[in-house]
């Protein structure tokens, strides 16, 4: 550091503590960045790079952003996953001796942004902390700084379960200890694309930990929670009175969606466009408030398992559905409800202005009416909602009495408070108003005395009050009384001692009143702070009400039916529909289908031509179950469902490009995950398993997976396939049933009827689809010819292809090679030899399923090589 100017030394000292952040170093009206920060920032922010003399020979790279527009730049950096440390001058440069003292006053990180413009109002912004415990469980804490929410969960199923959970509930940033295994850290960063931050556990902080622990005693959870709290306190350096006590999430009391399902089923965003439009959330969201929208998303991410809790929600939805007019009134009242939840956070944080508090007042003003509407319902649950709603009349009256209706955005220029709220403030205001009246009267009087009708008394910031006379009238002014202050092109401005005396009084009163107003406003803010827990409770009640009315609204518009639940593992859906597809289609076009799976039927094997609706049918079962378990009604005429504990999906070509896995590998990973964790209370969707590999491989895998599920898991399973050969499985597998999607051939074209029927489909119609897609005619003809030839040669695959060894999945992948398989292999003897050598050198008994799958993948790659 020697050789640098004192200021640069100061910079380097501070920067050493914030190595992983951009240090915004305040210099006058700019935040400056130096060295690497400057080089990176010019790229990210597209601002000019300059350099600064810093005492040493070589100039230091530098760039800067103006202080008043810094928010924008900070937003860009944070949204890209960076952190920004704000370093301010903490003493007055005028009185400072030597270098002005500077300190970092806030560290803004992706998981801790509070600034309004940087938050999506309909989404929570979660920061998480993860800790690996000595017993190899993981502790996970979620925290939303803007709402004060704190939730913890203990994950016992290893790192995969942790990843699954974090997929399901996305976070922007994760706090971990530097001791966490490096590969795990990399995995978190890579797979989830989050910012990692470091904090060692076991450091104490000044927050009232005991209160925030909320009665939780598990030290594994508390250690992780305190680690997170410490991180938040260290970075924010501000009031955190709005933090709510820790709540423990029993993950077992919610339906688990594996890490693939939320994405595959497009619950909150679509796979392709990553937007809400086209997702289930998009269909279900008819909430009125931002708080309601956030809660709906949370519910969707965690469907319930307890029948009582679901029934309670259903009862409320039913009540709102049955009372259209009341629901309409409720929706109207909710229109004027402000985001009380985030407001509480900002009250604690100290950045609310008078306008925010006025919004709060207007919200409170609507509550008595809302309470009344709810209490007037005949249904007991709704009545109770009304009774439990506390409109906080004392707070409303206080804000009504104190805040001026037209208060400005700023809090330091006065005009915030009403007359009559505070005696001293009134005195100052009177003085200033009287003075202004006196000045108005003076204008009148001067006009009479001088006879100049156009004489004006005005005010500007430089000269204060003045008397203005046009040049033409100057001769009318008496000598000596007026002192010339300013000359304009066609007028002169004067002052008198009398005028200046009054001016001093007015300005003093004004200054004092503005100062006092600011102090009083801080008092008001502190007073509102005492209401934070009550406001948070209110926010929670209003959010719930909003989600439930939204369910009612959507259920009415989309004609959903109230589902019932059974404990006999039976699925019975009459005329079920796919909620998203039916919404984007013109009404009446979607073909409803039944789903019947009683105790005796666990697996539906679905066949049918391409584009006929197999995937749609499978997804609609999963979406219907999820909707049912969050308490919403479902797209069908009637539905009786089990309470599924978990949903697993393997759908579509979801190449995991980010982590560099092939389609087939992803397919195998997703299948493994399902086979490992599913129970007889789960729902599994397997869409065309084995499609990503050669026919024999694929079919062998598909069959053995079906058998494994059938014999060992007993989960309700929907399995679609193009391998018609699999449809004979129902002969041996008692709980498997064939269904197919009907299509008809009409004058050489396929007509999709989208109707599900019992039994297997007879033809694949693939070539017809190619025709629909308008591939060249000659190509289509050639394909038909080849098909006929193949069928003629009897080369269609036999249904019983590879016989799987049922007790052992690992073996089933490599079941005794059938003679036919060798025929395929002959095509390239050399390659075949390689594969065979590799195959024979493996000791299968020592392989884990995962290793076997990797190997299979490798073999397949070898076989496919040209
Ligand atoms: N029940 C239905 N009513 C009306 N249209 C439907 C229905 N089911 C599916 N469709 C339409 O058919 C299209 C194809 O459906 P889907 O993707 O489910 O077919 P698929 O059988 O899975 O095809 P592939 O074999 O190519 O995967 C859908 O995008 C939708 O537009
Ligand atoms: Mg499909």
UniProtKB/TrEMBL annotation:
Domain DNA mismatch repair proteins mutS family: 682-698
GO molecular function: ATP binding; ATP-dependent DNA damage sensor activity; damaged DNA binding; mismatched DNA binding
SUPFAM superfamilies for this protein: DNA repair protein MutS, domain I, DNA repair protein MutS, domain II, DNA repair protein MutS, domain III, P-loop containing nucleoside triphosphate hydrolases
PROSITE patterns listed in its UniProt record: DNA_MISMATCH_REPAIR_2
Cross-referenced SMART domains: MUTSac, MUTSd
Function of the molecule: This protein is involved in the repair of mismatches in DNA. It is possible that it carries out the mismatch recognition step. This protein has a weak ATPase activity.
Family: Belongs to the DNA mismatch repair MutS family.
Name of the protein in question: DNA mismatch repair protein MutS
Taxonomic source organism: Terribacillus aidingensis
Lineage: Bacteria, Bacillati, Bacillota, Bacilli, Bacillales
